[in-house]
Amino acid sequence: MYEGKPLQIVELGPGKGTLMIDLLRILSRIGYRQQDFSLHLIEISPMMQNEQAHRLCMTHRSSDENMPHYYEGETVSGIKVYWYNDISKVPQTFSWYIAHEFFDALPIHKFEKTSDGWRELLIDIDENDKLYYRISGKETQAVQLWIRPPLDSGNKKELEVSVKSLSIARQLAQRVDENGGIALIVDYGHEGEKGDTFRAFHKHKIVNPLENPGECDLTADVDFSQLRIAASKTSKEDNFAIVVGPVTQRDFLIRAEAESRLQVLLDNSKDEDKENLKAAFEMLTSTQKMGERFKFMAFYPSAMANILENITNVTICPGLGGTVPVSGDLSRCQQRSQHSPGFVSIPKDSFKINFFRARNACPTPCTGRQMIERAVRPRSAASMHLFLESVPVRECWAMDGGANNGIARRLRRRAGGMCLDV
């Protein structure tokens, strides 16, 4: 596996830069230094770009007109930050791409199926200078270009297509496939079952999208099924992505140990703050709130296809009471109680991960694709041990509540000092 240094972190639509600030803090904690990575931000709003620069950078300035980026800066620790108005201008190399609430803000075409076939829903202006919707009398160019299988599959009567979203998803897939890395998309969305999601917000309230143009935030739910189509292999394209997901925000956070993180925060917080933490966790994970509305999708390089499909020897075995089993030796763990969290073993000649602790894992045997799609991740609040079996071992992670520091130290030595304690 690629070590990931030097690394490009690319965010599409960084907003106020809050996510990047959090990410910089985490990368610093796990050993990344200023020479190990750079930030590349896609932003077309001068106002938002200015706010991002002031929050992220110690110094910043306009770039030379001959450069692909139009603005640049450095963080207080010397990390380079670059701004672009289009993803096509970002250097093509190993990158992490992040699109958090980005695709829902891109423009859409709206279509309706009539007795005469598909027609585009247009916006016109009446004699009182008021905007209103009207159906096109004939097929528009957008209907002829985009309303075709598989986008119009099923019994849909309404359809929204974001051509810009399809283009960017395709670019992300090509970049990940050609240069390595991963793309993570997080947004409100569905998987093709909805047709009319276009709406407007003003002061946190839903309003008529055609009233007060320019004063409201316009949005449409992301159709993840269309992003999957755009990123996947076609007859005319050689570069494509392995598309995983979408999964709900609740599933993503729970599998990423959000419950354990909450417990750590609760254990170290004041009594008056505990209820606020619990309420925030509920808001993020509840199926009645953001837990179901937000979804996560990832793009992997197509070179991982054989790896993901060929891992079939996955063994679930009981926990080892805080010890890490010897690679390939499952006899001890098979003799332990079935009540403790289990270990998942993956053949080291098939994949890099050898052991990690997991309470809820997929049935055996299962493919590597199933493991990633189900995001088999540790769920033990007490401890988790994950290390990579490679030659040589480059990285390892050790998570615990403080009782297994000896194990963490041994893993760190095995990884040549590069180890993350969470």
UniProtKB/TrEMBL annotation:
A biological process from GO: mitochondrial respiratory chain complex I assembly
Record GO terms (molecular function): protein-arginine omega-N symmetric methyltransferase activity
Localisation per UniProt entry: Mitochondrion
Cellular component terms per the entry's GO annotation: mitochondrion
Pfam families: Methyltransf_28 (PF02636)
Keyword terms of this UniProt record: Methyltransferase, Mitochondrion, Transferase
Top EC class of this enzyme: transferase
Annotated InterPro entries: NDUFAF7 (IPR003788), NDUFAF7_sf (IPR038375), SAM-dependent_MTases_sf (IPR029063)
Name under which the protein is recorded: Protein arginine methyltransferase NDUFAF7
Family statement drawn from the similarity comment of this UniProt entry: Belongs to the NDUFAF7 family.
Function description: Arginine methyltransferase involved in the assembly or stability of mitochondrial NADH:ubiquinone oxidoreductase complex (complex I).
Catalyzed chemical reaction(s): L-arginyl-[protein] + 2 S-adenosyl-L-methionine = N(omega),N(omega)'-dimethyl-L-arginyl-[protein] + 2 S-adenosyl-L-homocysteine + 2 H(+)
EC numbers: 2.1.1.320
